[in-house]
Amino acid sequence: SGKTTQMFYILDLLNTAHKDLTFFWFDLPKRHESLTLSLFKPCQYIVPPGVDIDIILDNKTDKQPYPIEILRMDEEIEKGGKANIYDPWAYLKKGYINIICIEPFILKAKIYGPIISGIFENLIDRAVNENIITPLTGFIDEVNNVAPSRGNVYDKAHAEGANDFTMNVDRLRGLMIQLVGSTQRYLRVKES
Prior knowledge:
The protein has helices spanning 3-17, 73-78, 109-128, 156-174, and strands at 22-26, 43-47, 68-72, 97-100, 136-141, 177-182. It is α/β, with parallel strands linked by helices. Strands 3-2-4-1-5-6 form a six-stranded parallel sheet. Helix 4 (156-174) links the parallel strand 5 and strand 6 (177-182). The longest helix has 20 residues, at 109-128. It is globular and about 45 Å long.
C-alpha cells in the first residue's frame, strides 16, 4: 500500500530540514524493511536480551548507506548495567535513527500487550520527567498495534496501554516528541 515508503519520505524531509534530529523507528517483523533507514543517517538497532541479529546490507542504490550499529541489551548487562525491555528509550543515541527491534521477537499474544504498553508507558514517563533525548521524532508502522481499537486488543494490559497512549499523544508533542504512525485500516486504531 506504500505506507512505509511514505514514512521514509517524511523521515527524509524532516532529516533534510533538521540534521540534528534524533529518530526512533518502531520495527515490525517485515523482512529487511528497516535497513532502508541507513540511507538517511546513521542507525542503531536496539535489540532485547537473548537476541542476536546480523546485518547484511544488499544495497541496490547508488547512495552509500550510513553506518549501522547494534546495541544488544545483553551487552549492557555485561558492562554492569541492567537491561529493561520495557525501556528502550534509555538506549537512544542522539542524532541517530534508533530502530527499536523488540516487537519482532514477541511471539505470544499474552505477553504482547504488557510489553508494548510498558514500552510506551516508559516513553510517556521519560518525556514528562524530561529524561529523554529531544527533539525526538518517532515512526510507528502499524500504530494499531500500539493503540488498537476495542475489538483488536489482546488483553486488559493492551487495552489500558492503548488508553494511556492516546490520552498522552498531545502531551508528547508538547514535550518535543512527535509521532508519525501508519496503519492498513484506520478502524483498527483506537479513537482519541
